[in-house]
Amino acid sequence: MKVTGNASGSGSSREARIASHSHIKGLGLTEDGTALPLSQGFVGQKSAREACALILDLIRSKKFAGRALLLTGAPGTGKTALALGIAHELGQKVPFCPMVGSEVFSSEVKKTEVLMENFRRAIGLRVRETKEVYEGEITELTPTEADNPLSGYGKTISHVVIGLKTVKGTKQLRLDPSIYESIMKERVSVGDVIYIEANTGAVKRVGRSDAYATEYDLEAEEYVALPKGEVHKRKEVVQDVTLHDLDIANAKPQGGQDIMSVVGQLVKGRRTEITDKLRGEINKVVDGYIERGIAELVPGVLFIDEVHMLDLECFTYLNRALESTISPHVILATNRGKCVVRGTEYDAVSGGEGIVSPHGIPLDLLDRCMIVRTLPYTKEEIKEVLKLRARIENLNLNEDALDLLTEEGVKSSLRFALQLLSPASILAKVSTRTEIMVGDVQEANTLFIDARRSARSLTSGQGGKFL
Ligand SMILES: Nc1ncnc2c1ncn2[C@@H]1O[C@H](COP(=O)(O)OP(=O)(O)O)[C@@H](O)[C@H]1O
Ligand SMILES: [Mg+2]
Hints:
Strand content: 15-25%
Oligomer: single chain
CATH superfamily of the largest domain: P-loop containing nucleotide triphosphate hydrolases
Helix content: 25-40%
CATH architecture of the largest domain: 3-Layer(aba) Sandwich
Bound molecules: adenosine-5'-diphosphate, magnesium ion
Number of domains: 3
Number of helices: 16
Largest sheet: 8 strands, mixed
């Protein structure tokens, strides 16, 4: 079911941010935690990966609470990739929420509010629900009309008769007109397999009964088998949601129809905004669920990139949030060395200079961090990653073109070389070739320059006037 997809508003942009790491499937470790040269999409960066393996052990043995992992290293050395690798290692259904430090600065939402939201995006809940459902193939669908008592014209639907069939039997149901509305919304017709939730009346179309399967090779329909058992039954449903999904679902109960019944209405009443009070109420209900064994907490990974962009207020919040009983695993990343902690510039203590701290992180938070450093890649490693990416993106890369890209990677950064792949492939396509040749890479490289060349062209010569 698509609870996560539906509910989280900016979900798609977050996925797009992960897309360039789609080749990363884990940390590529052996049983005893040593990093393989190339495994699960990970190349090199051996000691950082092994350090992360240790962190994984700490997380699994529940000894990581109250701490955070800090990844430091130059841009494009695989900090985000490592964080994602850890999330993969923790399990498939573990939420991963990436954010960038500067996201917290908005004129409309409080900084800590943004942090709080992302914290809740990174905490998953696995809910087991036993639902009473009616499931079967529709054999009959007849709305019965009646005169509208309120006006002389028009008619209203008084009830709907629906026939459902399973392998074991058939049943005829008389349904409320409001359920007919959801039936219309799901666009179901005779021959479809549906299920109706008994207590909410939510209707879900499962697919078309395979008795109606035709002989087309290609079709948009999904055919499903006739359900087994009785029409009326109890069904166990397992769903993975994040706390943020619950916040949203309960802030807008009108959207709760296709979302889970119970989860969608944890808190009664209509609200339009996620408030601390609402969150508190949801936490209480969730706690109850966990105690009764209906739900299980799945702490995910919150990844804060460019953590030096956060300010003192955010760091204070982070410190406190790490202490809380339900906290995700927090991974921070930065490419800064010593710099001023934002938000301390006007502090009287520092004499208006600001407090300088390693990575721009206050010492009390640094104290809680386990720091792992990522190192620059060698030429061979860059080449391996490029080859991997080309395979994932289904690109046919000429051997010389690969060498040239590798050189670019050494000169600027791995990320820059990876970014040249797509434009080069488009240029190849324009010349009606499937293979990417040296020329395509060269052209892409003249069209898009890396940061160093860009800065140089602006400070020297004709570009200088822009500064
Ligand atoms: N060791 C590695 N193995 C495979 N791919 C990597 C490795 N390191 C980085 N990458 C890939 O290179 C790109 C840039 O790395 P990224 O993790 O975004 O760097 P950073 O976060 O340190 O700036 C990403 O597409 C990433 O998946
Ligand atoms: Mg990154």
